Amino acid sequence: MKAIWNGAVGFGLVNIPIKLYSATESDTLNLDMLDRNDLSNIRYKRVNENTGKEVAWDNIVKGYKIDEHYVVLTDKDFQAASPEKTKILRIFQFVKEGEIDPAFFDTPYYLEPQKNGESAYQLLLEALIKTKLTGIGSVILREREILCLIRPFQGKVLMLNSMRYPEEIKTYHDLKIPAAKSAPPEELKMAEALIKSLASSFEPSAYKDTYHSDLLKIIRQKAKGKKIPTYTSTEQQAKTTDLMALLKASLEKEKKITG
Predict the structure, then answer these.
(1) What SS3 class is residue 144?
(2) Options 3.30.360.10, 3.30.2320.30, 1.10.8.420, 2.40.290.10; which CATH number does 5-28+60-168 get?
(3) Is 91 exposed, middle or buried (0-12, 13-18, 19+ CB in 10 A)?
(4) pTM to 2 decimal places
(5) What's the gap between Cα 40 and its chain centre?
(6) What is the DSSP code (8-state) at residue 169?
(7) CA 43/CA 81 separation, integer angstroms
(8) In this structure, are residues 4 and 160 in contact, taking their beta carbons and an 8 Å threshold?
(9) Do residues 24 and 204 lie in contact, with contact meaning Cβ atoms separated by under 8 Å?
(10) Where are the alpha helices (DSSP H) in 161-224?
(11) How high is the pLDDT of residue 252?
(12) Mean pLDDT over residues 88-114, rounded?
């Protein structure tokens, strides 16, 4: 793996030199965009708006528009904005992970200790496991200050989760949510029973991306000239009056499955 950031994790007066690595990878099929007429690949170019000519990466700079004029920024300008934050991931609070709504979590990354940082890294890892706490901090990543959470992952490694700021979470007040009204006691009791019947310990390995493999099967069938059957949905939207019957049927189905 290639590190995407080098710096240090700081808490109190302790600084731990680390490297940051992406903890996820995309598992989607690599589909190309083609011209329907002759199946030629579609290519995108970086074009000068005025001349219409393609611009090489080496000639591209970043700028901010003020009063119809652009101020060009260099790497030194970004570092000058906050010298410490570009190299230090500062932890400023420790909290219980359960206090944070999952809506705030974003991308996960692995933290690896650099030379001479192994002991302090292990110390922080074990301390977080013992206290059952996680660290909240911030760091400059890709020219943006991100809020982040530092936590143990599977008891072996420190993981960083980038987080969304509160203002990035859209309000739900514009949604057409029905006015709060208590559910009928019989339906609520039945729904609770169904939820409990489906409750179990979370096992990540039990979940697979089946759409990926199913789509690949379709591609291979089409490559062999086979006809792909047309799918028509037979699902119907349940009426509110059907809820009790649907809950009972669901419970009966679960009882047959579990024996």
Answers:
(1) strand
(2) 2.40.290.10
(3) buried
(4) 0.74
(5) 33
(6) S
(7) 36
(8) no
(9) no
(10) 185-198, 210-223
(11) 84
(12) 94
State the residue for tokens 């379709």. 218
Whether 86 contacts 140, CB under 8 Å: yes
Please give the single-letter amino acid code of residue 162.
S
Beta carbons of 138 and 145 less than 8 angstroms apart: yes
The model's pLDDT over 236-255, given as tens digits with 9 standing for 90+, comes to 554 555 878 888 888 888 77
Q: d(Cα 221, Cα 179) in Å, to the nearest integer?
A: 49
93-108 residues labelled b (16+ CB within 10 A) or e (exposed): eeeeeeeeeeebeeee
144-153 and 134-141 strand pairing: antiparallel
Nearest to 8 by CA among 78, 68, 91, 127: 91
Tens of pLDDT, residues 154-212 = 999 999 999 999 999 999 999 988 887 888 888 888 889 888 888 888 888 887 877 77
